[in-house]
Structures are given as structure tokens and as C-alpha cells.
Amino acid sequence: MTATRVLVLNSGSSSVKYQLLDMRDSTRLAVGLVERIGEQGSRLKHTPLTDGGETRERTGAIADHAAALKAVAEELAKDGLGLDSPELAAIGHRVVHGGQSFTEPTVIDETVLAEIERLIPVAPLHNPANLTGIRTAQALRPDLPQVAVFDTAFHTTMPESAARYAIDVETADAHRVRRYGFHGTSHAYVSRATAALLGRAPEDVNVIVLHLGNGASASAVRGGRCVDTSMGLTPLEGLVMGTRSGDMDPAVIFHLMRVGGMSTDDIDTLLNKKSGLIGLCGDNDMREISRRMDEGDERAKLAFDIYIHRLKKYIGAYCAVLGRVDAIAFTAGVGENAARVREAALAGLEPLGPAVDAALNAVRGDEPRLISPAGARVAVAVVPTDEELEIAAQTYALVDR
């Protein structure tokens, strides 16, 4: 029997998201989430997707990632999908930061683990959790290929003119300071899916991808290769996000230290957790902001306008970077569901080519779709992202080779 299943793990500091897929036809067999690991109120939510299975929940203390993955294995086994199955080909791990070292999916060994660990200073919130998930999975199935798929890999094709900051080169190189970009699996998947929607090969299409969720990023993709992206050394740079500031004069930090008496930790918390939409209006849910706008809330409207202004600037900039744009694709929670955001982001940009059909934009759906009128010079698409499928596909392609 040929092994065709891939388990995808996304390990956070206190959570594990997982999906089991059969890569013969990209069918999802089970999905789930373990959250609040290390707390008394831990919860595992597991949904088998074969034979009409129903969601099951387990509550109670789950001490660590090892206990979490053991519980996941037990739930999968109840559905005949256990980790000991000979049909399991590999485990694919989302790893947030691969630096310049990892430009493609990589089979994990001790050298790879050491490099992921070396990159912790530039991804202190993510890489340690990713490492914990990998080591735990290795202990459960030491015989099985474990593959790292890096958020940063898709963006390693950026030219140096886009990836370099204009600071002293020796200092930058000594401390690995450059623009890496994130959400790479989403940008890769959506750019290819957009080309397919247009009936063209990815190599023939230039796409601006707008991944708009609580975290948000934009990318300029020329012929299937990223040439620029909005996030930088960390996921803080770029667009206005749910709780992150995005682009800002770096001197604001010095000002807050000198005048506001704030520590580096205070400022880190401010910019990552208390800024963006939540800092501007107290809400980071675009649905709630939209509701408040409809009721005449001026603070919500200002937050929305700032969000759109930044987004529009990046769309215009990436039109300039690409020269020729074939499509603009909206994805992730806000991009896929907020028609108001899509309409506002492209309003006034018609001279550049994109246009939105109001009726098509109002339609909701789970499939990739065009929302631009027939004959538009630049197609506008809504493409639901599928990062887990992208990780599974990259993992399976590597081990199958």
C-alpha cells in the first residue's frame, strides 16, 4: 500500500492546529485544535471529516505539547486514522522563520533543527513553539519523515533591492537584519490559484496578493515568484493589522523611550498587541467595526479609513513594482468576507486597471471567484486561502520524490 496521507501541524506557544489529508485527491480526513496547553482549562476540538463524523471535545489540563500530540493521536485513532497507520507518509510542520537558509520545504534533521533554533532571535514568539512541535512529533514517530515548510520561503526570491534595508551593510549582515516576509504559504497558494482562475499558467501571470486577516500582508508576485512583500524582519512591518501598527517612523520608538519613559518591552507590547485597529478604535474585528460605522461611530470610521489608506498605498506601489498587473487577489478572513474592504481598497484606482462589480462583490462563497466586471483590464479575485493544503502538498511532493 502506498502511503499518501500527510499530517499537518501548526504548533503555537500554547496551541496546536492540525489537519490530516489524503494527497491522492487532497481530501481532508480530520481537522482539530488543541488550545490553552499548560493550563487547567485546556481544550481539544477534533472533527473527523469522513463518514459524517461529528465534532468531539475534550477539556481538562493538557500539560505540554507532548501531551497535546498524544491526545491528538488518540482522537485520530478513534476514527481509524491513527499515527501508526502505514498510510501516513509524512508529518508537515509550519515553521514561521527560515531566514535565508531555507528557500523550499526541507526534511528535518539535527542540522535543520539547529538552524531553526539559531533563528529564534528574529522569531522569538514562533520558532520556539515550532521546534517544540517538531521534537514532540519526532518522538511519536521517529521513523517517519518530518518536513518543515517555512512561512518565509516564498519570499526568498525577492531581489536584494527589495529585501535590503538602507542601513549599514556590515551591521545588517552581522545581525541578519533584512526583509524576510511572512504568510508565504498563503501567498504561494493564492497566487497559483488566481492564475488557475484566469485559465493561465502561474509563470504568465503577475498578481498582487492581499492576505487580510488579523495579521495582514501584501505581496507582488511576478510569474509565480515573489518580488516584494509588505512584512519585513518581523510580521510588524507593512499594512495596518488587527493589533499591529504596520509601517511607522522608527523614531517614534526613540520618542516614546525618551519622552514617554517606556521600556523596550512596553513598546514591543504597544506596537504588536495594542496598535492597529484595536489601538485606533478598540476593536480588531472588521465585522464589529463595520457595524459601528453603520451606526455613525466616527472612531470606527477613522480606523477603517486609516486601514484602507495604507492598503491602497501598497496596491498602488505594487502596481508600480510589477509594471503589468493581471490580477489582484483578496484572501484570508477579512479579504474573503469583507466586501466593504474590497470595494473601498480599489475605489479610485480604476485608472490603474482594477474595477469591482458591486453585485459580484456582494456574493459570498467558498470557491475562488472573480468580482471584477467582464473586460476589466486587471481582474479582481476573491481566493480562499488554504495554507494547510499548501503545506501538505509541499510535504508530500518532497517525500514522494
Number of helices: 15
Number of strands: 14
| Helical content (DSSP H or I, runs of 4+) | 25-40%
Q: From N to C, what is the helix and strand string?
A: EEEEEHEEHHEHHHEEEHHHHHEHHHEEH
Q: What is the mean pLDDT? A: 93
Report strand %: 15-25%
> Structural class, from secondary structure content?
alpha/beta
Major sheet strand order: 5-4-3-2-1-6-8-7
Global morphology: globular
The low-confidence runs, each spanning 5 or more residues with pLDDT under 50, are: none
The radius of gyration is 22 Å
- Kindly report how far apart the N and C termini lie: 17 Å
Sheet of most strands: 8 strands, mixed
Describe this structure in words.
This protein has 401 residues and is α/β, with parallel strands linked by helices. It is built from 15 helices and 14 strands. An 8-stranded mixed beta sheet has the order 5-4-3-2-1-6-8-7, sandwiched between helices. Strands 11-10-9-12-14-13 form a 6-stranded mixed beta sheet, sandwiched between helices. Helix 1 (65-78) crosses helix 3, helix 10 packs across helix 11 and helix 11 crosses helix 13 (339-346). The protein is globular. The model has no long low-confidence stretch (mean pLDDT 93).
